[in-house]
Structures are given as C-alpha cells and as structure tokens.
Specification:
The structure is a homotetramer. Chain A has about 350 residues and is an alpha/beta fold. Chain A contains 13 helices and 15 strands. The longest helix of chain A has 20 residues. The N and C termini of chain A lie far apart (about 50 Å). At the A-B interface, β7, β8, β9 and β10 of A face β7, β8, β9 and β10 of B.
C-alpha cells in the first residue's frame, strides 16, 4: 500500500485513537510512523494491531524523527500551542485539535511559529467536512439562497461532560460553542463583529457551581450585515442535536439530524422515527476522515489547508467576547477583545 | 338557524370581512346584526349576500343598538382603544384586533374601561388557536418536554407590506413581532423579563428610509429561567414561514409549515415538495374561526376569554422594550418599560 | 345570500347530513329546499337549525316539487339506481353517492335514464377532489412524471364496519376498493383491462364468516401499458392510511397522509409525529365540499360533471372482475365482465 | 494487525474489488492471501496497493493453497456453482455472490457439496445487512407491528444495464427481483407459496427485443397468510429507489431512501431535498462490509452463516415461478416449480 505522508501522532486518547484508526484504515495518502502517549504501555497492543511500528512516551521522539513529515496533535488542550510551536520549529506540518489554546496570546504565538517555519497548519474543526453542513455551505456559496440574512445553528449535546472536565474545559463557549462559532464563520462567509450571549444553568446546578453554564443563546452580528443565532444545551434528552439554517434573499437552506435508519413505525400510539445518532463519534464519523484526508492532500499538493491558523484564532476571540457579554450583560464587539491583546 | 350572540362588526377591511364571513358560514353561535364601515356603500352587496340585515357608515349605530351583544373591532389600529372603551361603556362585549394600541397608556385605559363595564374582552392573537402551534403549547402544558429551556420562534412573511403601511405600522416589533411576543408568552407559560433585539435592513432599503427594519433576531429572558429567540424577516422567497420549537429538560417539541398538499415529486432534478401556504389568510384560516368561536362561547358560558386584556398589554410592552434595545444596543428589562408609564 | 341551485336531499344519514351541512355553510351556489328521510321526525330540529324549510318522509315530495333543480341521493345503496332513474324522469339533476348499484344492469339503466332525460349526473367519488390526490393527478396531467408505468394506491381503514354492514356491503371490493378503482382510473388517465386480486381474512374471522375478506392486494393492467397495485386493509392500527404513488418515465409523484398537526416531539423514547387524521370524515372533509361545489357549478354553467355515469359504471365492473379473480384464482379481463351483461 | 481468517478472492470485477477493499480496510477479522482473476495482469498494481501478496489468473491456485481458509466467489454467475463445489471439496468456506446459479439443479448440487464437505456457505444477499432494511426486519421480529398482513417492496434501478448484460442476466426476476424475493422472505419470516407476476416493457424496447421486461409488479402469497407485493423498474429518473413497508395487526413499519445529505432548500420554486444515493455501491456500501464481517465471524465462532444455501435456493425458485406466472398469465405455486426438479 503506497503511503505518501509519514505521520506521527501525539496523544492517543479518544480522539487520538480515532484519528489513528482513520488514517490506518481509510486514508491511503498517509502512514503512521509513530505514536507518542504518556501512557505508552497501555496503547502498544492497539498500535501493533494498527500496524504502527513505533510507540513512545516522549513526543520529542516524534519531533526528532527525520522520517516524519507531519504531526497530529491530540494531547490535552493546554499542550496544543506548545507542541504546535515545537513541531513547526522541527519542520513538521501540524494538524492540531481545537482549540489551539484558551488564550489569544498562545494561539497567536502558535500561528506565528507555523508561519516562520513555513509548514502547514490545520485546526480540527471537523464539522466543516460533514456532509450535511457542507451541503448547506455549498448552497450558500453557489448563491442558491442569495445574500445571507439570518444564520441559525442548533447545537445540543446528549449529556453534559463530567464536572471534573467542566472545570478545566474553559467554559461552554470555549469548549462547546467554539465549534458553532467556527460554523457561523464558515456558513456566512463573513466575520463576526459583535456578540450578545445569554446563558443559564438549567440542566445541572453542579455545572453552575463549577462556574459554568449549560444552556445558551448567542446572537452574532456579521460584517456582511447578516444576523446569527446559536442555541446550545449540554443535555438534549433525545440525543445529539446538530442542525443549521441559512436564510437569505433568495431562500432558505436547512438541514436535519442524521439518524441510524430511515425507518418509521406507525402504531396506535403514534408515528415514531429514530432519534439522532447518539453523539459526535457516530454523527461526525465521516467528517473526521474527510478532514484528515484534506490535510494530507494539502501537504501532498502543497496547497493551503482548509482550516488555517486564523480559523483557529477567530472562534477563540468570539468565545471570549461571548463570555464577556454574558458576564457584563451587554453586546461585545470582537474588536474590543482583539484590542485587549 | 339558531344564533345566540348578536354581533356588530366595526370595520370591514380585509380582516373585518374575514371575520364576518367566518361568523356567517362557520359559527352557528353568533349572528351578525350590523356592519359599520366608513365606506358603507362599497360593502352593501357583499353584506347582503352574507345575510347581514344592516350596513352603516357610523359605528355608533352599532354601539347604540340595544339588540347587539358584542362587537368585533376591525378598524384601523389608531381607533382600537377608543372603540373598545366606547363599546365597553355601551355594555358590549369586545373582540378587538391586535394591537389594542401602540401606546401603553391607551391599552391600559381600554383594559380599565372593560373592567369597569364588566364586559368581556378578547384580543385577536389568532395564532394561539392554530392547530400546529396549539399542539406544541399542549405538549408543553402536558409536561411532555419537561421544564422549558429554550423557546424558538421563526416568523417570516412572504413579502413586505407597502411602504405607506410600514410608515404607520408602529414598526416591525409592534406590527409583526407582536404576534411572536404573544406566542412566546403562550408557549413558555411564563413572562418575559428582558429583551435584546438585533435588527437590520436587508430586504428593502426603502423600509430603512421609512425608519423601520425588515430583519430581526430577538432574545428573550423569561421569569422561569428559559431563554427565547425569535427571528423575523419581512420577505421569505418561499413564502410564509411559521415554525416553533420548545426545548426542555425532557425533550423538544417543534412544528413545521403547513403546505397546500403532502405531494412529493421526485425527478432527475431532485425531490420537490410544496412551499408553505402563502400567507396568513391561507395559513391561519382555521385559527380565525376558532378564536371567534371561543369568544362567543366565553360570552354564552360567561367564562374568561382565552386572550385577555393583559394578553393584549404584555406584547406591547415587550415590543417597546425590543425597540429600545435595538436603538440603545443593550438588553432592556420589561420592568424598565413598565416603570416609564 | 344569493343561492342559485335549489336542492333536495334524499336520505339524511351520516353522509346525507354531511352534504346538507356543507351546502348550508360552505356552498353559496346552492340552497336546500327540502330533505327527505324515512325517519323525518328525527331530523326536524337539525334541519331547522340549518335553515331548511321542509322535511318529509317521502322522497317523492322532492321529486314532485317543481322548485327543486337537483337532488342529492344519500339513501341506502339499494335505492340509488331507482331514485336516480325517478329523479331523472322528474327532470332533476342528480348527485348520487357511490356506488350507483352493485349490479351492472341497474347502473346501466340509471345512466340510460339520465341520458334520456338530459339531466346531469355526478357520482360521489369525492377523493378525486382531495387536495393531496388532486395534486398527484395534476402532476401526471402536466407531464411531470412522463408516461405512467406503475400506479400504487394504499387504502386502509382505521377499523372494520359492523358485521351487519359487512353482510350487505357487497364485499370489500364493491364497498371499499371501489374508491381505489376510481382513483386508479383518475390517476392513470387510462382504463383498466385486467385485474388480479388476492384477498385474505387477517383482521377478523367474523368477516370471513360473513363471506367477505378484510385484506387485499389487487394488481391492475391498464390500456396504456401501466401496471397498478392497490393494497387494502379493513384495520390499520394507526388510523386511516390513504397514500398514492405514480411512477413514470420522468419521475415519481407520491403523497402522504394528512395529520391533525405538523408537530414533532423528540424525547428519550424517540421522535413522534402525529397519526393520520382519523377517518374519512376528517380526512376528506374538504373534498366533500369541493365535489358538491363542482356539481352545482356544472349545473349553473351547463358543463359536464367531473364524475359522470361512466365513471360510476367502470369501478363496478372492476370490482366484479376483482371478485371473480379472487374466487377463481386467475386474472380476469374487464371485457369478460362486460360481455356477461 | 492480527488477521484471523485467510481469504482468497476469485474474480476481481466490480464486486470482487469492492469485497477486497472492504476486507483490506474495514475487516480486521480477515486477511486476503491471494486474488485470482482471468485478467490477473490488470489488477496487480491495485492488489499490491491493498497489500495482497499474490495475484494469479488460475482460481485453482487459491483452492490448492493450504493456507487459505475461505474463498469469496465474485466471478461470473455461470461459474458460481462450480467454484462453490470445488472450493467445498478443497475444504474452503465459501462466500458466494448471488445467485448461486440460474438453475435449481446446480444450486442444489452446490448446497449438497457444501454440506458434505462440512464447510460454511454464505450467499451475497447484502441487503439483509442494510441499516434501514434491518431496522424494519428487527421491528417485525420484536413484534412491533404484530402479525404481518401486507409486505411491500419497492426496488427500482437508476438505469438499465447494457443490453449485452440483459441478454445473459437470466431476466429481470432472476437478476434484479431476486434480491427482493430474498427480502420478502427475510421480512415476513415466512415462505412464499404462490407468485403472480405482471411484467411490461416500458423503459426501453431493446430490453423487450432481448426477451426481457423492464417493469414488473409481483404479488406473493406467504405461508403465514400475509400478502406481498414487489414493484420493479429498470429506470427511476430520480435514482435508486429502495423502500420497504410491512403492515401488520399492530401497525406499519416502513423505511425511506438514504440521501447524500439531509439538507433542504426552500426557494420561490419550491422545497427541494436530495435524490436517493445513486446506486447500489453508494446505497449499500455499509451492508457489503457488514455481510462480510458476519461471514468471517461465523467461521471464527463456528456458527451458522446468516444467509445459508437454502436462502440461496428459495429466491431462485420464486424467480422461476414469477417467470412462469408472467408467461402463462396465471398464479404459480412454488411447489409446482419444486416438483419439476
């Protein structure tokens, strides 16, 4: 099997394993040369089954390996910026899970390091590669709905993460809504100028005790005049709710949730169809493969990656603006956040 | 045909004619005794065909007619409060089209007059009687979605009204969104405490020149902790878009647009289904009959009307708060508006 | 209220009352002058409320009334042909509920009598006037699906009729499928040449004991080469199932059931939407009004009625062929049935 | 990568390549040791990329290879029975594409050979493993629709095969409907007793000239009393139409087509959703993987395969009955076909 890009994976938790398996089974354009994880011993058998020749507990073994062209950074968020910078300096192309960092400074440093090194950087906003969302985006680009006027994003999780995770997550806006902020930019083809965020603790008081919210409605104003609105919940009883709607001068494009099957049961009690696919691993399965394929193709063809460093920075700025808006009970301009740095 | 409530209709424009025809053809509980319109001559033939014995150009002929039990006020908005007050004083029950008035003072005066006279008052928020919206409301009341967390209302017209109308309409919030503010209260079973409104002129610059907006996203905070969001446009290319969604602790209830038929055509070009019913006359046809039926039943059974004077006042307050929010770029509490009067 | 056609109604059972109320409330083109029913006393109050001046227990009072232009025959099936013939001879236009008769001879006699008298005849195949079915038919006529290849009709009742009714109904094909045979002709724009019917008793053994079936699949061959298939059940647990599909060289047009609302509830248990409208009174409400309107318009404008005597005869022939096919376990040509008479 | 079952693939046309790639990329339970194809040279590069060590133009190299546990037979239909018999004699487990043969004798010989050799046999009725169809089947098994009364299968191809293929295909019933006959057995949990088939040439006269039909409606009677109906077309303008419906005493389970996305576009021209996935490679992608996984698991766990030799024989009998029925214009019992052999 001809593999072109030699890859090292840093971090083999849930998402690291997912990317590794996708590369091994679905992406002929790349070959995994090594995987680094602090718990190296726990992944050796899994890695061997994938055909990965080397496992290490030191990510530097990957950065120092001259055979490796690119790294996929799947370690914890606090290491993303540092590993990106070091990898760039070592001349490796970088695929980095979102967010690059919770602070604007570090995100900017990472982007700068990548720029100086002349390597490629792609951020893991996988939802852009989803068949349903992409179809909406394509229709907008093709002019099918005319100029966008109203952009709506519904994004609700099936269940909140553990409280221990909530505490270090950076908050709902940085942890969960950040995907929606990216989606808002992607769909509108415009930049967010102003944010107004309303948040509440309605799902679990423990989330409030941890200083976070679990329910939110966020209004966005875009440079092109469009208005956006995102609604989030940490818990939708019926599962992962991921819908978009772009309304414009010529019409409206919306999508619906994917379901395990299209079957419909009619009985005396009603007409039942299936709940959405359970969570992001099921729902966005193919998008994880597609984003990785595009990353390796960008390397092979020396083209720009589809989700750049700026695409990693902007949602962090919007998330910070949203947080400030909610705390201060007023709309906040992105410019105000940018100036603070 | 046994008719119980004797009715006089004041104003026979589009909506007045609609109510008159509904009463004549669909509501055995009531009988139209007289219709008043400033252009009385133009409606004589139409009224005769309906079997209405008397047409006058002076609404006082109706108020002074001792045989008349109730009036249906369908004249221009600026006369609603005055006619309501005079009708109450004349001892007539009042069905008044929305809004009672664009000012809080007059709305309060009308409510007060009705109270003093001991007559019944119902406001024309017909959408509460719509089969689709009512089904959502019922599910909320039955506890099927648990405690409401997020309430979403999409309300888009197929085409903007004439500019001359826009100028005297009281603005988008008072003219169009007022239905959605009523719906938000109806669905949530709670009162709106705070409003944040974003507006834009994206459909027609002439609307902006007239001092109004044509596109809006409005965030609502409810007393029960829920967050609401309404999105409006004066022009949806595909027609009248009227959808609701209430998301709560146990699930989500949403509805979709009614269409002229359920037919679906699949060809080489795609799978086509029908656009929504064109506008409010088609879409809310049955709700106009239902609201009137309930008004007459409230009279006959001496029960409270389903949409009271307070239900007429609250949306006016919310609309004023929305306007102030948009003008001042900040969230506005309803309390702040109430205190101003 | 200007009413043009003076109508007498013969038979005020469920369907007679329905037509009377539709004419009284929804059809300004006609005025009910008299209603005849063998139980005249039981309908006097109801008729008075409708504003009908005369009630009689003798249908001849209607036929002999020179003021009456048209009769609506809603009496029991065994009287349809006779009353049609007598009404025609009395110079009245005739709207006759389906079927005209269970025998070909009498149907032909009725058609002949109408022809000789030069009056109009319309058969009560109301489903042709249904918004959903009409939309499919229109698409076929407009050439949107090209030449029809396969025509599918699903027609299932929510519950079987009483056994006493089953015994005199003429059997499933004559009582229930007859509507579908009419629909097949209406949709295909072609005549049925051959029928193959499979029947079974799966719902209730008592139906089998009464010599009838409760479940059937019927294949039709049309003159234009298309193949049709009808499936029937006397009992669908989820309610009245009425769907069509026409597949042709350019595409496929299908429709779905109407529901009381478009609301959808998502919970941990699944995604629920509403069952179909319960039965024909709810589902085909508007079609009963539409067929009657067209009947009166045909009289007023002296045009052909939309469902003629031949349209009443053909489904009876097809039903007889279906019965013979099932009994003899072979496909039966319509020609074979026609020749027998 | 630990692979358990050593596989040889015989025939590397479209379906052979599909199975090979599925095994290589998606099925860790098996490892391809060799591929035989008469045009071996044309597949060497493709096979090398898959990591397959051996390519041969002689299928006997596979049968004689003692390292090989199982064969996947994807050669032309006329070789299926012979290769199955030879593989069984060589002690290999057999996955054989449908149909085993166009004649009952050879199918029986193949089944007999497999039985004598004590190896496993699975037939390639992949649709049983489709998520949508499986969901319907599961609901039937779980008793959700009660006793099945009516079973409906719609199966339409997006375009007819080349005329050269039509000539050797065995005819529509044996080539295309055979999948639906299998599905009918799968869904009903019962055996077909009698078949009545109507066929027509409506898509392309050349298909008629080749002695075949392109449009069909087939009625089935099942042992359990249910009635089934299949409708087929060689050309649906809107693509591959694959829908099922099982109606029973407690309700109805149906499914719909899969689409490339769930996106819906509303414009002034209508409401557009996507056409079905184009053809079987797209639509049944996952089912091909699932059937193969189950085959290897049956070998590894020494359990019965999910689609046995009998499951390969029955649809051939039904197809022969359907052909006879159409030719002779009468219903044909399966027993009649069975007795002929």
């Amino acid at each position: 099997m001809k593999k072109n890009v030699k890859v090292g994976i840093i971090g083999a938790g849930r998402i690291g394993k997912l990317h590794a398996e996708n590369i091994a089974y679905h992406i002929p354009e790349a070959e995994i040369v090594a995987i680094a994880d602090v718990y190296a011993d726990q992944i050796r058998e899994w890695a061997a089954n994938l055909g990965v020749p080397m496992v290490t507990n030191d990510y530097k073994d990957i950065l120092n390996n001259p055979d490796i062209d690119a790294v996929v950074i799947c370690s914890s968020t606090d290491t993303h910026a540092r590993f990106t910078i070091e990898a760039a300096k070592a001349g490796k192309h970088v695929f980095c899970e979102k967010p690059i960092d919770l602070t604007v400074e570090k995100v900017k440093q990472a982007i700068e390091a990548v720029k100086e090194a002349g390597v490629k950087l792609q951020i893991g906003f996988n939802r852009r590669f989803d068949h349903n969302h992409k179809r909406v985006r394509d229709a907008v680009l093709e002019g099918k709905i005319g100029a966008p006027h109203i952009i709506k994003i519904t994004s609700r999780d099936p269940a909140p993460p553990p409280i221990e995770y909530v505490k270090v997550s950076g908050g709902l806006f940085m942890d969960m809504t950040i995907h929606d902020f990216d989606m808002a930019r992607y769909l509108s083809g415009s930049e967010v100028e102003e944010v107004y965020a309303s948040g509440a603790v309605l799902v679990d008081p423990a989330i409030g005790d941890a200083g976070d919210i679990d329910t939110a409605v966020i209004t966005l104003k875009f440079k092109n005049g469009a208005i956006g609105v995102i609604d989030n919940s940490r818990k939708a009883a019926y599962g992962y709710d991921q819908r978009l709607e772009v309304f414009g001068s010529k019409g409206c494009m919306m999508n619906f949730n994917d379901t395990p099957s299209s079957a419909v049961l009619s009985t005396v009690e009603g007409v039942f169809s299936e709940k959405p696919k359970y969570f992001f691993l099921e729902r966005y399965k193919d998008s994880f493969i597609a984003e990785m394929k595009e990353f390796f193709n960008a390397i092979l063809n020396d083209t720009e990656t589809p989700v750049t460093g700026i695409d990693g920075l902007k949602p962090v700025l919007i998330a910070l603006a949203a947080k400030k808006s909610m705390e201060e009970g007023r709309p906040v301009k992105i410019e105000e956040i940018e100036k603070a740095f």
